[in-house]
Design brief:
The chain is an all-alpha fold and about 325 residues long. The protein contains 15 helices and two strands. A two-stranded antiparallel ribbon has the order 1-2. Helix 5 (about 85-105) packs antiparallel against helix 11 (about 205-230). The longest helix has 27 residues, at about 205-230. The chain starts with a helix and ends with a helix. The model is unreliable at about 1-5 (pLDDT under 50).
């Protein structure tokens, strides 16, 4: 059913397209747009892990991404850490914070959990905006250093930064695929399908939900750290909830509960908005109906709807073969 999306050939073709993109794009602006899309794709993969696979809608995801970015900014600018050590800490800090928040919030279910995390995300935004002694408030942190060279490899051009971000995306997509295909991934899916049934099968709900939450925010933290090193400036707006909703749209358009879906959504949607820029403020009049149409006619997203169609076709062919 899903062999097309699981085959090494298909993933290899996507990787080759990504490697060749700089020669297709032809200018640094397109490289910057695509690099930013890759960073948000990493964060979206994390959100999909807790929402699409485990069934818990975390509305504080952008807040964790901002925590990762500020961890890199504060450690490099204020304390002289290297970018690489700071990037590692961005994931560690988010995992530690995710554990504490997860232990508290995941006792709630459904929309109660979502509302709680929405409040947590807003608190994160306020802390970042108001704690001027640590985060510099609304001014933000400027002058974040670029990633240090690794041997002869430097990261001081849009092209080198593009491949820098792409390497992390490829690594984290591979890790995500390994997770969702493992017993742990099946456990997350069982929890998404039914808490009661999962518990009856002997699954520890709280432990596995917290683990999914921690893995999810680790992706957000790394994405935030990469964003800080790429843009080299961060402000409180990174924690705004609309970034979480953007990532939700990316995942929904591509297909929740799949690996490829959120990846395609996070990469494709920014390009749609880029090509609608000539409409200026009216572009959302076009963009809005497109999203509505996608939700109505492709409720499982592009990848999810295609997989569902493949399943229905295979079922019909099986019945026809049995009748013969």
């Amino acid at each position: 059913m899903s062999g097309l999306f699981d085959s090494k050939l298909a993933w290899g073709a996507l990787l080759l397209l990504a490697i060749a993109f700089p020669w297709i794009a032809g200018n640094d602006y397109f490289l910057t747009v695509m690099s930013t899309a890759y960073i948000f794709a990493i964060a979206t993969l994390g959100l999909n892990l807790i929402t699409g696979y485990t069934g818990q809608l975390n509305l504080a995801h952008a807040g964790f991404m901002a925590v990762g970015a500020y961890t890199v900014g504060i450690l490099t600018v204020d304390h002289g850490w290297t970018f690489w050590a700071s990037l590692l800490m961005s994931g560690v800090v988010c995992v530690a914070l995710g554990y504490v928040i997860g232990i508290i919030s995941l006792r709630l279910k459904g929309h109660y959990f979502s509302i709680f995390t929405l409040c947590v995300g807003y608190i994160m935004f306020l802390v970042i905006e108001k704690w001027e002694g640590l985060t510099r408030g609304t001014v933000g942190i400027m002058g974040i250093p670029e990633p240090e060279a690794i041997g002869a490899l430097t990261f001081d051009t849009p092209l080198s930064l593009y491949y820098f971000v792409l390497c992390f995306l490829v690594l984290l997509v591979w890790v995500k695929r390994r997770i969702v295909k493992s017993l742990l991934g099946r456990t997350f899916i069982a929890i998404r399908n039914s808490d009661e049934l999962a518990e009856a099968l002997g699954i520890n709900l709280m432990r596995n939900k917290v683990l999914a939450f921690m893995l999810s925010v680790f992706y957000a933290g790394i994405a935030g750290g990469l964003y800080a090193g790429f843009v080299r400036f961060i402000g409180p707006d990174m924690a705004a909830v609309h970034h979480t909703f953007d990532m939700m749209i990316f995942a929904m358009v591509g297909g929740m509960g799949t690996v490829l879906g959120p990846l395609l959504g996070a990469i494709g949607m920014p390009w749609i908005t880029q090509y609608l820029q000539f409409l200026q403020e009216f572009r959302f009049i076009v963009f809005g109906p497109i999203l509505v149409a996608l939700v109505i006619f492709m409720p499982y997203g592009v990848v999810g709807s295609f997989m569902a169609w493949r399943t229905r076709r295979a079922t019909k062919e099986g019945k026809a073969h049995a009748a013969d």
